């Protein structure tokens, strides 16, 4: 079974030794993705903007892998403050409303202070 690695060119991928996404058979595993705009390496302060950026990065990685958001079966949301949940839900709810993957949200610390949300998805080609 062929394994395909997807990269966004983020400096974090090289430094930490990971891929943005890994395709193995009918599965695509997208790494936890924060809200950086990788073209400018800037992070918006607003958590909703961070969620939009993360979802955009995820959608592009899925597309490069031959998948789409429609193929997402599992999603993990990590926020640094429970107060951010509603803002993140507005963003991801618009993307996943009709797809309805299994989902979990946790409140946790992330590795950089500017990071407020991180999103990880798993997709399956039926």
Structural class: alpha+beta
Distance between the termini: 17 Å
DSSP E strands, number? 6
Q: What order do the SSEs take from the amino end to the carboxyl end, as H and E? A: EHEEHEHEE
Helix proportion of residues, in percent?
25-40%
Sheet of most strands: 6 strands, mixed
Mean pLDDT: 95
Radius of gyration, CA atoms, in whole angstroms: 14 Å
Give the helix tally.
Answer: 3
Q: What topology, given as strand order, has the largest sheet?
A: 1-2-3-6-4-5
Backbone shape? globular
Low-confidence stretches: none
Strand content: 25-35%
Short summary of the structure?
This protein is an alpha+beta fold and 126 residues long. It is 29% helix and 29% strand.
Characterization of this structure:
Strand 4 (72-79), helix 3 and strand 5 form a beta-alpha-beta unit. The two termini are 17 Å apart. By secondary structure, the protein is α+β, with helices and mostly antiparallel strands. The chain has 3 helices and 6 strands, in the order βαββαβαββ. It has helices at 11-16, 47-64, 85-96, and strands at 3-6, 21-24, 27-33, 72-79, 102-107, 117-124. Helix 2 (47-64) packs parallel to helix 3 (85-96). The protein is globular. The model has no long low-confidence stretch (mean pLDDT 95). It has a 6-stranded mixed sheet with strand order 1-2-3-6-4-5, with helices on one face.
């Amino acid at each position: 079974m062929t394994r395909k690695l997807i990269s966004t060119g983020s400096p974090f991928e090289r430094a930490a030794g990971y891929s943005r996404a890994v395709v193995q058979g009918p599965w695509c595993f997208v790494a936890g993705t924060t809200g950086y705009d990788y073209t400018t390496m800037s992070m918006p302060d607003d958590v909703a903007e961070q969620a939009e950026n993360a979802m955009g990065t995820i959608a592009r990685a899925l597309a490069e892998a031959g998948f789409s958001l429609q193929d997402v079966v599992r999603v993990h949301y990590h926020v640094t403050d429970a107060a951010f949940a509603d803002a993140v839900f507005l963003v991801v709810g618009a993307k996943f409303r009709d797809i309805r993957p299994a989902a979990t949200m946790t409140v946790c610390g992330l590795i950089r202070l500017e990071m407020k949300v991180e999103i990880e998805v798993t997709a399956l080609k039926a």
